[in-house]
Predict the 3D structure of the following.
Amino acid sequence: MITLYQFPRAWHIPNPGQFCAKLETYLRMAAIEYRIVETLPVAAPLGKLPYIEHDGRKIADSRIIISYLQQRFGDRLDQTLSERQKAQALAWQRLLEEHLYWVCMYSRWQTGPENWHINKQAIFRGLPPLLTDGIASLYRLRIKSQIRGHGIGRLPAAQVFELGRQDVAALAAALTDQPYLLGDQPASVDASAYGILINLLACPVASPVKEYALAQPALTEYCRRMQLRYFPELGEPEFA
């Protein structure tokens, strides 16, 4: 059985880690059995979550993990996609994971004490109280360095949020007249879209990008559709 290592659940969504939510969603979409170990990324192979353990191997990075799962268990979601749809899926994945993700991380880790406190409580609440502040602060410095290294952390906040709004507008346009990113049936890219969007829309961290996204019915309905289909035990997501 697959062992999935990820952050503890929070906020009535699968996971406060976007890629943890993505990977667990994929496992459910592909009907692959797994068990969860809640942890922090201290011992993770690449220093990040999620990672999996299977047949004595530890595998990290959600993209590499999903490719491994497709090889071992079959490609249950994308095998009927056309080459055009596969190209579209890759483009959406890059927008979500290489850009919008970093806009969301900017909101959580680099803006305002209130946003940081909310994020810290969700991610690090399993630590002993005397260690929480120190470890969380060190991790925050690391994440802020990564955000700056990406480039988005070097921009003024207004420009960051405008770039994020453009990503959100594109996703809303794609989902206005179809239930999933590629049409009537879900594909693996929907695990990525849901993992990142649910963490934008249902995470209690405030930002102008979130305000804009909440005003897009196509996005809230998409997240509701995905959560009720693949995580019914969590109930409807709470958008606020």
Remarks:
- The longest strand covers residues 2-6.
- The two ends are 36 Å apart (CA to CA).
- The mean pLDDT is 94.
